[in-house]
What does this fold into?
Amino acid sequence: MKRQRGQAVVEFAIVLPFFLLLVFGIIYFGCMFADYITLSNVARSSAREAALVGSDDYDTIKGYYKDNTKLITNIYIWPGKDETDEDDSFTIEKITTAGAGNVPGSVKVTIKATLNTDFPAYGFMKQISFPSEYEIKYSMHDEKAGT
It folds into this structure.
């Protein structure tokens, strides 16, 4: 009977690291997906707002979403309130010519988020081919343009 108890402890010691790796992997992928959903919502909301107010207030819209949006984790970095407007990580532009899915008279929002190199599991994430950058594009018909 004592030998079987020792066997169970050895089996547990062998299985535990794999189980913890699986659990933490699920948690990290969940956090990554939550950040993606947050950025998608920001792109959709800012495109909708830009389509409603017109091209005069694009900088105001960008500033509002930069200041008031925070990602759930710090796995990815996107332009927050400390970033400058010269950065192309968050752009709102008016589309004037047709082509490749672009409809004239619409607004296009592009958000880019890059993998945080200061994140504790960065080296491991690079080895398992985590995407190093998200690029989310969203376009919406500009209602101010009237076309």
